[in-house]
Amino acid sequence: MITRLQLIILALLPTLVQAQTTENYTQYVQPLTGTQRMGHTYPGATVPFGAVQLSPETDTLPYEVNGKYNKDVYKYCAGYQYEDKTIVGFTHTHFSGTGHSDLGDILIMPEAGKLQLNPGTADHPENGYRSAFLHTTEKAEPGYYKVQLTDDNITAELTATTRVGFHRYTFPAGNEAHIILDMMYGIYNYPDKNVWTFLRVVNDTLVTGYRQTNGWARTRTVYFAMTFSKPFTSYGYENNSKKEVYRGFWRKFDQLHNFPEMAGQQIRAYFNFSTSANEQVKIKVALSPVSQENALQNLRTETPGWDFDAVKKQAQDQWNAELGKMQVITTSLAEKQNFYTALYHTFINPTVYMDVNNSYRGLDQDNHTAAGFTNYTTFSLWDTYRALHPLFNIIQPHRNRDMIRSMLAHYDQSVQHMLPVWSHYANDNWCMIGYHSVSVIADAVIKDNADFDANKALDACITTATHRGYDGLGYYMDMGYVPEDKNGASVSKTLEYAYDDWCIAQMAKKLGRMDVYTTFSKRAENYRNVYDAVTGYMRPRLNDGSFRKPFDVLNTDEPGYIEGNAWNYSLYVPHAPDTMIAMMGGKQRFAAHLDSLFTIQLPDSFFAHTEDITRDGIIGNYVHGNEPSHHVAYLYNYTGKPWKTQERVRMILKKMYHPGPDGLGGNDDCGQMSAWYIFSSLGFYPVAPGSDQYELGSPSVKTATLQLENGKTFTIEAKNQSDKNVYVQKAVLNGKTLDRLYITHSEIMSGGTLVFYMSGKK
Amino acid sequence: MITRLQLIILALLPTLVQAQTTENYTQYVQPLTGTQRMGHTYPGATVPFGAVQLSPETDTLPYEVNGKYNKDVYKYCAGYQYEDKTIVGFTHTHFSGTGHSDLGDILIMPEAGKLQLNPGTADHPENGYRSAFLHTTEKAEPGYYKVQLTDDNITAELTATTRVGFHRYTFPAGNEAHIILDMMYGIYNYPDKNVWTFLRVVNDTLVTGYRQTNGWARTRTVYFAMTFSKPFTSYGYENNSKKEVYRGFWRKFDQLHNFPEMAGQQIRAYFNFSTSANEQVKIKVALSPVSQENALQNLRTETPGWDFDAVKKQAQDQWNAELGKMQVITTSLAEKQNFYTALYHTFINPTVYMDVNNSYRGLDQDNHTAAGFTNYTTFSLWDTYRALHPLFNIIQPHRNRDMIRSMLAHYDQSVQHMLPVWSHYANDNWCMIGYHSVSVIADAVIKDNADFDANKALDACITTATHRGYDGLGYYMDMGYVPEDKNGASVSKTLEYAYDDWCIAQMAKKLGRMDVYTTFSKRAENYRNVYDAVTGYMRPRLNDGSFRKPFDVLNTDEPGYIEGNAWNYSLYVPHAPDTMIAMMGGKQRFAAHLDSLFTIQLPDSFFAHTEDITRDGIIGNYVHGNEPSHHVAYLYNYTGKPWKTQERVRMILKKMYHPGPDGLGGNDDCGQMSAWYIFSSLGFYPVAPGSDQYELGSPSVKTATLQLENGKTFTIEAKNQSDKNVYVQKAVLNGKTLDRLYITHSEIMSGGTLVFYMSGKK
Predict the structure, then answer these.
(1) Which ipTM was obtained for this model?
(2) Which residues have CB under 8 Å from B278's CB, separation 6+?
């Protein structure tokens, strides 16, 4: 039970933290980091966990070519690729770092001179409303983005509040100005992805409407309200679909000019303005999951005025307050940039999915009210259970509790009776494997960060984990493993189910439900069932009990695995590393396996089919760009060779992260890659969320001060820190030398100081 | 201002009236009347003004053949044609008597034996879930419909509450039973009319979902909740569209069997039951304009149990209470059947469009709450302003006020700032011409039946009447007529705008807004601008002021007119008949014109292009099946020859209405045709709604007692009534012989007795 006073304190926390912040941390954040190649981040404006992500689109590729999926579109998951030379517009929703996509809603683009209602092409942006741009004119800061649109010499600036995207366009001389509102555009624009769009011109400064799509989210609707700082003089639209089949008596109107009701599948609208040189037209676009009226209420509540600079300052103050929760001193500017850019990326997803009046659309496609919590969406759980949610348990505990309450609401609305797998915008897209909501929930319960009904949450975990129709789970329950001939990626699934089951067991134990503990502890042993003692690898088994042949341990396309090969996935028993090591031949042999992982040289052909990582995301056969290996470097701790953990971690930190557009070695995956950076740079990592322990690694910061929500401070200090001094001679917690290779959650949350003594010697 | 006590009394009124009713009036109603040819009524179950109209579908025709509109589908506006031999299922929404269509939502069909998920064909119903049936097994009563489905020997029975359709299916021996839920089916099923459908199997007796369409209503969504009296044993579905483009990780489920989340454009689902001989499976389907949750609330509130017979009785009691508001004695059973069938048809549309919790979807596609009124939809105003709404001002005044409040809410939500033209389900389809909401509002204001803000309503009328972009209205405002070369049907529009303007003037006068009165009184004279003194007809004029050539006064396709030719439309100045008659050459010449209308013999070729009337709907050149002539027979009163009104009215009553499926001479048009019958059979008619006068005609009833909501009773008695005694020798109101050819609204509402003395002599 949380008291009203506590709630007030929590509400004030950003302010309190901000008051303590003297440094401007936003200066170190480079939102462009990860926008080149496979980072899949976006450079635009958003506030922490904001519902609006207002960012430029450079995409030019059709989703299909001759009826076939065009795999090149994969790079446009966040709508923007650094090497592109043109921008087609600015849209209001983006995932950060995902490996598949959706969104890109409500495209706005300014135009001067002759109206062009087609988007144009990358080769000839001048033939449409698309424009060329130069990176030299581009400015990307937390909560602010600016670029010069070369074609028509328009300056575009973007900022945001939680639910409102705020645009400021400065027009050149010449009195013909236009704002394009393209409802057709979308990221991953499948043919017929648009189900319906609807626009109402309420008056000469207000437009409302919605976009309904069938994409990664099967049934998704985004409502919006859009206001202009200056009345438009006229407007119109084009419907580029045959879908609007019945026109009939609508012909009594001139529907193409100043017609305020636009509805159809493929609509592009324009609004004309008369402007003078350097005149600014400002636009605010609020989103809502529920209704146009709610969008308007969001707009009026969050942005009552037209002061762009004040909203920008507010957004940056918010970022500074969040970033200031971790105050670090580093050995170089680049590291500081790495750190705060990573922290920035961890504070983007999940996103608020609720109006200012607490209403949101549920998984059942009905509207609901979030009673006593903020509803979030965008749960990329296969990625984020590993380090992002554990990070939140430390630095965003209040939000993490609300995220779990959002998951439980999702469960209540699920006719599958399942917690979210990969959910966004009132949908589950079921992406990837496992049921890792249970890890997030167990981690919070174990770490005493649960203000929800933990027993009810445990019931939801159990129901989820016993859905026989889900992804081979029936076989797993009956046979102790998923047979590859019945259900693919069977090794990955068996291993991850076993880990998730261990999480359920831990939570049950803490809640005193020993029958559940016993059942799921037994299931947590199922990793043994896919271990092939002959080859020494986790290996796919068939329905008849035999191991599948042939077997290639390096092949990343090998049946039995997903986003990883046998070499990597064989290390995935995070909840029982000691047993795993014993099973796999003991510490010596296991350490050799680990070594080989980092040192083996693979030919390029191995990466031909992996679309979500680049060569950069790989060290030997260690794939940091995919998540299943994220705990691997820390496993050396269990082999009696912690110095190997320390050197590997420092190597990965250095090799996989650097400032600049190409600074990420793979998809950021809604902050998981960045959360790995934060933990590892601080010197510890949650190998098995659901445990209260963090394995010690090697910090890369000189000092870090964590301002905790409970008012306490946890400080990390790395004495004698340098690029070469990657080895930890000793770790001292509150003056006491640690005789173990981990610290616990409560040790962090109690406040105190952890001092690492660094050295260049093992 | 209405007091709380008055509200309670109003709420109790149906009960009070019912208490006075001893006769069972439902026995005279033949819901099958009008189901043959062009009546466009439906035979299924509904309650008065019910939101659910649960009725069989016999339609077999595609909307398009080779990409072209198949004009034969026109006869299926209500889904059912009497000559058909098969039923494809039962759907929950139907218009009554419209000349265009939509709806036909949520088709349910029982099946025994082998599951067939395709609808089959009329020729071979046995190849699908469609079934043959015989009219001998059919029973259609108010609130109840029954039929034997021959193919599988299943008895189907239907009843309803306001928001719930209640099905009862009796299965034969053999334990395989199925219920088909076809979300693809719809009336006027344009290709791609379905925008999206969504189904959730909540548990083994509850399914919820919605159907979203783009039809006559451009953007329309119907939510539903469906419960079964017995758990289904298994279920599945087919998606017959390529629209569901992203499947991806959904493949981890077996989506075809017992998969509870179905979404796509074209879905047909089935539910399997194990039944024994004569076992009944009952289904309740509640609709909502807002959400699945609201549908479920409607279901639980209106039909908490499973007693089909009790719900049927309740529906029939409701009908009896409504029908009993007019208690008539007639000279024949057929006339009584005509009368109550007509009264039944007047009490179907408009329909309630609001959940039990008062929420509804507005024209803006957002949800709203009706504060203090019942929200209605389905306003076929070009038809119903003439007699249906005036009839409501007498016998359903409370509902009529709520209908007007519904129109005003529509206005508030309209970005066109217009009152409804032809609105249904949160849409305006803009069908037909004029802005006849103003007539309905003015009529209520003039007749003191306005509990809304009349001045605000007048403002809405003025704004509507000055929308320059609407259907030639800008020209009309500037030039005093619509020029045919600028906007078609120009004569019809000019005449109807002029009448509507007169309505606005009358209302303004009553409200003391004399500037408005002056302006609109002037506009009301605009009928003069399309009168061609040379030919003596209302005739299309061009932008240059000249009359259009050539000019064919009989051609029903003649430019300048809609649903009427020059001969008929030239008589349309209902607000100024005396002036019109003078303008057209005086009483003598005008009476001759009227005579010719009824006596001229037209060749069949004249009707080749009129799809909404049959030869039966016509007397000479008088077209009763279309509305513009509905007041015409009463115009003889103004020529000094009231006996001609009397004989024409009696002739029309006799010729155009009779019991049985082919009993209507044209579309019933949401009750307008039937309202004409009710008024005329009572002996009076509202020639110009907006006036408080009713022209006297010739009653066909022997006596009629009107139980008014104010507690008073108005009785009509026709002494010496017979088929031949069609002439009124004198009319005596409350003992005083009338020296005029009209009675006033307040005379009716004050209660009393109107005695007609009938004779066979003129």
Answers:
(1) 0.94
(2) B170, B171, B172, B173
